[in-house]
Write the C-alpha coordinates for this entry.
Amino acid sequence: SIGSNGGRSLIRRIQCLLQEGWNVRIRHVYREANKVADALASIGCQSVGCIMFDIPPAPVGVDDQLCLADRFGVTTPRIVAL
Protein backbone atom coordinates (compact mmCIF):
# COMPACT_ATOMS: atom_id res chain seq x y z
CA SER A 1 0.00 0.00 0.00
CA ILE A 2 1.20 3.50 -0.73
CA GLY A 3 1.63 5.97 2.10
CA SER A 4 -0.82 8.84 2.51
CA ASN A 5 1.52 11.35 0.82
CA GLY A 6 2.12 8.99 -2.10
CA GLY A 7 -1.60 8.35 -2.35
CA ARG A 8 -2.44 12.06 -2.45
CA SER A 9 0.20 12.67 -5.08
CA LEU A 10 -1.13 9.81 -7.21
CA ILE A 11 -4.71 11.09 -6.95
CA ARG A 12 -3.57 14.60 -7.94
CA ARG A 13 -1.76 13.21 -10.99
CA ILE A 14 -4.85 11.21 -12.01
CA GLN A 15 -7.06 14.30 -11.62
CA CYS A 16 -4.70 16.30 -13.86
CA LEU A 17 -4.84 13.58 -16.52
CA LEU A 18 -8.65 13.50 -16.34
CA GLN A 19 -8.79 17.27 -17.02
CA GLU A 20 -7.08 16.79 -20.40
CA GLY A 21 -10.47 16.48 -22.12
CA TRP A 22 -10.26 12.76 -22.81
CA ASN A 23 -13.29 10.51 -22.72
CA VAL A 24 -12.46 8.46 -19.62
CA ARG A 25 -14.50 6.04 -17.56
CA ILE A 26 -13.11 4.84 -14.24
CA ARG A 27 -14.59 1.78 -12.61
CA HIS A 28 -13.62 -0.60 -9.87
CA VAL A 29 -12.72 -4.17 -10.80
CA TYR A 30 -12.05 -6.67 -8.03
CA ARG A 31 -8.62 -8.32 -8.13
CA GLU A 32 -10.28 -11.72 -8.57
CA ALA A 33 -11.57 -10.55 -11.96
CA ASN A 34 -8.22 -9.12 -13.14
CA LYS A 35 -5.41 -11.25 -11.79
CA VAL A 36 -2.84 -9.88 -14.24
CA ALA A 37 -3.29 -6.31 -12.99
CA ASP A 38 -3.17 -7.56 -9.40
CA ALA A 39 0.08 -9.46 -10.05
CA LEU A 40 1.67 -6.45 -11.80
CA ALA A 41 0.63 -4.17 -8.92
CA SER A 42 2.24 -6.59 -6.47
CA ILE A 43 5.46 -6.61 -8.51
CA GLY A 44 5.40 -2.80 -8.62
CA CYS A 45 5.00 -2.51 -4.85
CA GLN A 46 8.10 -4.64 -4.32
CA SER A 47 10.30 -2.28 -6.34
CA VAL A 48 11.60 1.25 -5.97
CA GLY A 49 11.41 3.52 -9.00
CA CYS A 50 10.06 2.86 -12.46
CA ILE A 51 10.43 -0.54 -14.11
CA MET A 52 9.85 -1.10 -17.84
CA PHE A 53 9.34 -4.56 -19.29
CA ASP A 54 9.84 -5.53 -22.94
CA ILE A 55 7.82 -8.66 -22.29
CA PRO A 56 5.48 -9.36 -19.37
CA PRO A 57 7.34 -10.82 -16.39
CA ALA A 58 6.45 -14.16 -14.83
CA PRO A 59 3.77 -14.94 -13.67
CA VAL A 60 1.88 -12.72 -16.13
CA GLY A 61 3.36 -13.80 -19.46
CA VAL A 62 1.05 -14.12 -22.46
CA ASP A 63 0.96 -17.92 -22.20
CA ASP A 64 0.85 -17.96 -18.40
CA GLN A 65 -2.16 -19.16 -16.43
CA LEU A 66 -3.02 -15.71 -15.04
CA CYS A 67 -3.11 -14.14 -18.49
CA LEU A 68 -5.13 -17.01 -19.94
CA ALA A 69 -7.58 -16.86 -17.03
CA ASP A 70 -8.11 -13.12 -17.55
CA ARG A 71 -8.43 -13.57 -21.31
CA PHE A 72 -11.18 -16.18 -20.92
CA GLY A 73 -12.96 -14.38 -18.06
CA VAL A 74 -12.18 -16.96 -15.38
CA THR A 75 -12.82 -15.55 -11.91
CA THR A 76 -12.48 -16.88 -8.39
CA PRO A 77 -14.97 -16.34 -5.58
CA ARG A 78 -14.45 -13.32 -3.34
CA ILE A 79 -14.82 -14.12 0.35
CA VAL A 80 -16.53 -11.32 2.28
CA ALA A 81 -16.98 -11.31 6.05
CA LEU A 82 -20.49 -10.41 7.14
Q: What stands out?
A: The chain has a mean pLDDT of 78. The first helix runs from residue 4 to 18. The CA atoms of residues 35 and 41 lie 10 Å apart.
